[in-house]
Amino acid sequence: MSGRALLRRGFTHGSDLDYDADKHDSSKYINDPIHGYINLDEQVLQIIDTPQFQRLRHLKQMGSSYFVFPGASHNRFEHCVGTSYLASEVVKGFALRQPELGIDERDSRCVTLAGLCHDLGHGPFSHVFDNEFIPRACPGMTWSHEEGSEMMLHHTIDENHIDIDEGDIKFIKQLIRGSSQPVGDEKMFLFDIVANKRNGVDVDKFDYIQRDCYNVGVNSSYDFQRLMLNSRVINDEVCYNAKEAFNLTEMFHTRYSLHKRVYSHRAAKAIEFMIVDALLIADPVLQISQSVTNPHKYQLLTDEIVRDIERSPEPELSEARDILARIHARDIYKFVDEFILPADLA
Questions:
Q1: d(Cα 242, Cα 310) in Å, to the nearest integer?
Q2: What is the mean pLDDT of residues 121-126?
Q3: Could you tell me if 46 and 54 are in contact, meaning their C-beta atoms sit under 8 angstroms apart?
Q4: Helical ranges in the chain per DSSP H
């Protein structure tokens, strides 16, 4: 063609830079610090561009660790986008290298959306909410953020009139929940990609381990891209080349290191306990725990709940405000001792 370049991708609809006007393209690119340029196609954007997904911008990926590690300011939003991208890349890789698997467009679409939506159900300060707050606020209630993700997935689709087949919604929810046993007529290896219940090696870990390391400055020689390239499906299960044994070991070692050095840092845990105590005091007034069964209320529940408590003039929240004020003054709970529980008591 004469004199001017043909630019196709990476510009919003209607951009003057898109000279290929005959080929409508509603996809977009974002530049992610972990994965580089990520293409967001229309099926992904219709979920991202909703209030329910945008809520993830206000949930810290590493919860209370941000109070100790200033770099840990990343949120569930970018983690979910990254996980979706990796899930899509894994499926595409299998389809290219092993066409005999019969991977179709539905498989690729549902796995990609499962990666995107797998953390829709996280509450304030991520795992603090479902692991610490809910068990104490609602004794006997068995609730997890995966259940919250399923609830919020339905809510997102219904509220924004997104056209997704009911069978696909069911499949996406199953992929989010994960399974180590066959699920109907679905391809079993697809359940190993987002939430692997057989061995724990999945794209969720690929993304958050690399993203957390990047943001808190922890070095690791673990290479998730090499793992992805050296994977294939054998007997309906995702397997890795034997030469990747050290790489897999390093992945779990990095995860262990993050737990010991970052996630379970004594100051971060102290602040976590203080946040939970403040939320428990505020719960009878703000009815925080009741939101887990109400998607309309849960959509509005983010890390900002602590600011809501601090701004509230309610006298019943005075003790909760005092606890949060101690966090700002760095007057945190003191570490006393630790001990290892036997496996049968853990």
A1: 54
A2: 95
A3: no
A4: 42-48, 51-54, 76-97, 105-117, 127-128, 134-137, 145-159, 166-177, 203-216, 224-229, 245-258, 266-286, 295-298, 305-311, 318-328
Note the pTM of the prediction, 2 decimals: 0.90
How would you classify residue 317: left for phi > 0, otherwise alpha for psi between -120 and 50, otherwise beta? alpha
Q: What is the pLDDT of residue 343?
A: 81
- DSSP states along 201-234: -SHHHHHHHHHHHHHHT------HHHHHHTEEEE
| 124 φ, ψ (degrees, to nearest 5) | -55, 135
**Over residues 67-72, mean pLDDT:** 97
253 tagged catalytic: no
Residue 300, Cβ density class (10 Å: 0-12 exposed, 13-18 middle, ≥19 buried): middle
What SS3 string covers 241-276?
CHHHHHHHHHHHHHHHHHHHHHHCCHHHHHHHHHHH
The contacts found for 183-188 with CB under 8 angstroms, 24 or more apart, are: 187/101, 187/102, 187/103, 187/107, 187/236, 188/236, 188/237
The tokens for 63 are: 């919860």
Alpha-carbon distance of 63 to 274, in angstroms, equals 13
Q: In this predicted model, which residue has the larger pLDDT, 19 or 223?
A: 223
pLDDT in tens, 275-330: 999 999 999 999 999 999 999 999 999 999 999 999 999 999 999 999 999 999 99
**Inter-residue contact 213 to 254 (CB < 8 Å):** yes
Percent of the chain with pLDDT over 70: 92
Q: How confident is residue 164, by pLDDT bands cut at 50, 70 and 90? A: very high
Distance, in Å, from the CA atom of 40 to the CA atom of 49, rounded to the nearest integer, reads 11
Residue 248: name the closest of 201, 303, 290 by CA. 201
Q: Is the model's pLDDT at 131 over the cut of 60?
A: yes
Distance separating the N- and C-terminal Cα atoms of the chain: 69
Q: Select which of 145, 154, 253, 296 is catalytic.
A: 145
pLDDT for 29: 94
| 106: DSSP letter | H
- Provide the 3-class DSSP secondary structure of residue 123: strand
Backbone angles phi, psi at 77, to 5 degrees: -55, -60
